[in-house]
Amino acid sequence: MSTPVDLDPFARFRAVTRARIGLGRAGDSLPIRAVLDFQLAHARARDAVHGHVDFAAMAARIGEKQPVICLKSCAADRSIYLARPDLGRRVDPMALAGIETGDFDVAFVIADGLSAAAVEAHAEIVLSACLRRLGDVKVAPIVLGEQARVAFGDEVGEALGARLVVVLIGERPGLSVPDSLGAYLTFDPKVGRRDSERNCLSNIHADGLPHELAADKIVWLIRQALRLGLTGVDLKEEMGGPAALPADL
Question: Residue 64's domain spans which residues?
Answer without folding.
Answer: 50-244
